[in-house]
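pasting for ref
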Amino acid sequence: MPSCVMISLHVGSSRGSAEAIKAYLLSLGVPEVWICTEMGGGADFRAAIHNAVDSCDVFLPLMNQQWADSGECYDEYSLARRKNLTSFERGVTSKGQPRKPVFVPIALPGLDWSAPHIEVLASYTNFLVHDQATVAPDAPILKALARSLKSLGFALPKFEDDGAPLSVAPSSAIAASANSVSPAEQLTALIGAAMTLLPQLKSGAGQGGVEEDTAVEIKDTDYSKVLKPRYMGILQQNYGGQMVWALEIEFDKSRMEPGAKNHITFPGAITYSLLNHVEDASMEEHDYWHKWVMEHIANKSNDVETLQCDLDVTAGLIIAKGVSVTQECNLIAADEYRLVLSVQGRTLTGLSKGTTKVPYDSTFRAKAF
């Protein structure tokens, strides 16, 4: 059983929701649920928050856009993240156990999933997505929260799970974050990212002694220092409903080889994890995407796509072609991706070529991790 759950919230917009969550968790037997609204007058609130993060087993951010924009909430998140990443080293947890505090985020409508700290959190943590701006005392999200805590190994002796499936959230849950991006917007984003890095690539190639009429030598180019081996981000799609995926993109830099003029080739892989799906009410059961999503959810599998990558060192553009897909459902053919590096290689902006008639129908951004 978690001895302490800390709810991180934007007080002005989520106080009632936090109090409803607290009451529910206490009713299940959780010994302590901490929210900052209960501090007494004259209390050192920063010290109190630090102590709450330091002692909690579960960090539960109640995430709306006000939370995402709040500097105080960001500080709480950053402190909890540091505590989580160092819990083994500090002796709080041991290998084989989850790092603490465990993150159990609840996303509310209107949240901008592209905010950097939310994007990083989404890349390794499943979100609970609520379809209303507030959490009522009888909201289905509370049962989902209890099930999540149990799945993480926390005992909740007073929780009686009837096993009934939770109702699918309506499309309003992530509609704002999962809207299609037009080809013009995609092209603008890619051009902007490419132009950011282009001067560095040209100057880096010159400093490395690469002649314009010779093939690239891997050891002489600066690009291996710009490209990071691992990026994490999110991808939103509107096939058969609305889906939010966590992406983990890996490049095997140890296997870089010279390609065509000013090009480097190397293998890579991209792992997809389904974070959330909002079903299209008009979709028939035999529909391709309905079948795919239902099988994917039933198998609880991650999809791993191996890639063969071709990097143009003068333009910062990676053409990554799917070689094979390993997954339980075997319903998707390999994709092709156009990836552009920016911000000293810390950001990867991408277009994904899917199965629709639109050449590149999904866009995403990932951060070096």
